[in-house]
Structures are given as C-alpha cells and as structure tokens.
Specification:
Largest sheet of chain A: none
CATH architecture of chain B: Orthogonal Bundle
Number of strands of chain A: 0
Largest sheet of chain B: none
Order of helices and strands of chain A: HHHHHHHHH
CATH topology of chain B: Helix Hairpins
Helix content of chain B: 55-70%
Distance between the termini of chain A: 27 Å
CATH class of chain B: Mainly Alpha
Strand content of chain B: under 5%
Shape of chain B: elongated
Structural class of chain B: mainly alpha
Oligomer: heterodimer
Distance between the termini of chain B: 52 Å
Number of domains of chain A: 1
Order of helices and strands of chain B: HHH
Number of helices of chain B: 3
Number of helices of chain A: 9
Number of strands of chain B: 0
Structural class of chain A: mainly alpha
Radius of gyration of chain B: 19 Å
Shape of chain A: globular
Chain lengths: ~240, ~110
C-alpha cells in the first residue's frame, strides 16, 4: 500500500477508534471514584491472610501468581528469542574497540557508583514485599548497576563481569525456580502455586510464606535477562558485520 | 477534569498508532509502538486511583486506610516488563532487517520471501 493512500485510511479508522474509545471511557466511573470490589477486599485481607504489607507484591506473587508465571515465561521467551536472532547472524570478528571514556574522574565516579546502585537494587528486591519495590523493579536496578561498568570503564570489563554462560544459567534458573516453587506446592498435596511456607511475623523479612522465594526467583531472572539483553546489543555495536 | 486521565490514554494510543502508520524508520516505528502501549499503563492506573487514597502498602499505616486498587497496579507492573522485552525483541528484528536488506525504511523492504 502506498504512503498516500495509507494516511487517509488511517485517519478515518483512527477517528472511528477514538470515537469508540471515547464512548467506552464515558461509561467508566469518574477519575478517583472507582470502587472495584477485588482491590477493596484485598486491601483489607492481605495483612491477615499473607502477613505481607505490600499488597501489590502479594497480588503479583500470590493471589495472581499464575499470571506472573505466564509473564515470567514470556520474559524468558522474548529474551531467548532476542539472543537467538542477534547471536546467530553475528560474525565472530570483534572490531578494535576504542573506549569512549578517557577521563579518569568519570571512570572513578562511575565505578564508585556501581556498588551503590547494585546495593540499592538488592535492597529494593529484599524489601519488595514489605515496602515499595519487588523482584522486577530491583532486578532492573541491579542490571543497570552492572551496565554502569560498561559506561564508566570499558566493554571488556563488562563482558568479564557477566560471562554469557553464567548469565544464561541464571536467566533460565530464575524462570525454572519460579515454576519449581509452583509445582512444589502440588507435591505437598496443595493447589498449584499455593503458598506453603509459614507466614512469619508481619513486617519481618521472613514474612509472606513463599512470596519472598518467588520474589527472589523473579529478581534473578529479571537481572539476568537485562544483563543478557545489554550484552547482546553492546556486542552488536562492537562486532563488524559482513553485508549479505 | 475528572475524565482527563482517560482522555490522555486514548490520545496516547491514537498518536502512537499514527506514528506506526506513518513511520519511515523501523526503530522509530518500534518507539511509536511503545508510546501506544504506554496508554495501557495510564488507563490501568487511572482506573485504580481513588481520591485522597494512599499506596496499597500497609507498612507504618493502619489497616483500613483508604488505598488505591492493588490489582491494576500489579497488572501495570506485568505490562511494563512485557513491553520492555518485546521492545528488545523488535529491535533485534530491526537489526536483522538492516543486515539483510541494508535499509530500515519499511517501504523499501521487499515483500517477505518464503
């Protein structure tokens, strides 16, 4: 289809779509007036039922843990596919890499920030089910801390720090641990992914039963997934491609 | 005023789709798709918001405090993660297209060969 016919066609259908969405939105409760029953119920029962103070984390890793399982596998599949597409076509012929960072103060400040950022990420993971945070958010921060090594120092140091074989194992291992925990409940005669550990004291790091374990499994997978993606795309810049 | 966040979500979706349709560059196209998808975050979070409510995290605040809906927030979290990984996958495909065809203009890429 030519660009000239595409635009009018889009404008007509977009106007229709906008009208339809506007009609749908007009039927929603006014902003700030929503009284969905599930959220209200959860806000009242989670503390007693799961001893978890972060209700969002309890939804993600327990009440709707099944959805998160699907999402974990989707994350795994998307990252595996990305690695497959990029690795397959790459010529193993690294270009002479010139590191763009020449200034010593930038290096020093950047590298000094690495442990701070990683520690912050681990903190966000560890307390994810008590205060705002969680495996997804903290895992991303940890991966960004590792990326700082590339930004502040050099590509070779980043590769040495995150060898592909190790990262691959963690990526698969995180997803596998999530599935194993879900299946583990079945072995004990419980429902799939039922919370099977003692709930602990409210507000303690050991509270929430199997929520902390699922949280850490997610954190490991997300960290490894992002490190792997960064590594693949960085490699893409470094490696000479042969046309054709 | 009370429907403004919903209108914003509709606007983001339509403007993102406009970018996808008129795009002349695959990376630009993928970014436009991300803009369109971010409308879902705005919509979900806007639906779950309650006036004068706090975040649904009961650490240091008494149980029964008015809090926003945790279910849509959990959905948004899922949404963001999926969006990022799909973004990476599409960019990888864009790299492959450039290697094979030498262009990133969707109109210049020949039809799919078997």
């Amino acid at each position: 289809m030519s660009a000239r016919t595409r635009l009018p066609l889009f404008l007509v259908s977009a106007a229709g779509l906008a009208a339809l969405l506007g009609f749908g939105v007009a039927g929603l409760p006014a902003f700030g007036d929503y009284h969905g029953p599930y959220g209200l119920v959860l806000n009242h029962v989670v503390l007693a039922q799961r001893h978890t103070t972060n209700v969002v984390a309890a939804v993600v890793f327990d009440y709707r843990g099944f959805d998160t399982l699907g999402e974990e596998l989707m994350l795994f599949a998307a990252v595996a596919a990305t690695a497959l597409i990029l690795r397959e076509a790459r010529e193993e012929e690294a270009r002479q890499v010139v590191d763009s960072v020449q200034s010593e103060p930038v290096r020093a400040a950047g590298l000094a920030a690495v442990p701070v950022v990683i520690l912050l990420g681990l903190f966000v993971v560890a307390f994810g089910y008590l205060t705002p945070g969680g495996g997804f958010q903290g895992g991303t921060v940890v991966a960004l801390g590792l990326l700082l090594v590339y930004l502040a120092a050099e590509h070779r140091a980043y590769r040495r720090l995150t060898p592909t074989q190790v990262v691959d194992v963690f990526e698969g291992g995180g997803a596998a641990a999530f599935v194993a925990l879900a299946l583990g409940a079945l072995l004990g005669g419980l429902a799939f992914q039922q919370n099977f550990l003692p709930l602990g004291r409210i507000g303690a790091l050991t509270s929430g039963g199997s929520i902390p374990l699922l949280n850490w499994a997610t954190a490991i997978e997300v960290t490894a997934a992002f490190v792997l993606l960064f590594g693949e795309f960085l490699e893409e810049v470094m490696v000479e491609r042969r046309p054709g | 005023m009370s429907y403004l966040p919903y209108a914003l979500a509709v606007w983001l979706l339509v403007v993102g789709l406009y970018g996808v349709v008129t795009s002349r560059h695959l990376v630009h196209l993928v970014v436009c798709l991300t803009v369109a998808q971010s409308s879902t975050y705005v919509l979900l979070l806007a639906v779950g918001y309650r006036k004068h409510a706090t975040a649904p995290i009961f650490k240091g605040i008494p149980l029964g405090t008015k809090a926003t809906d945790p279910v849509v927030q959990a959905l948004t979290l899922t949404d963001v993660v999926v969006s990022v990984t799909v973004l990476a996958l599409l960019l990888a495909v864009a790299v492959q297209v450039y290697v094979r065809e030498g262009t990133l203009d969707p109109d210049e890429i020949p039809a799919v060969r078997g």
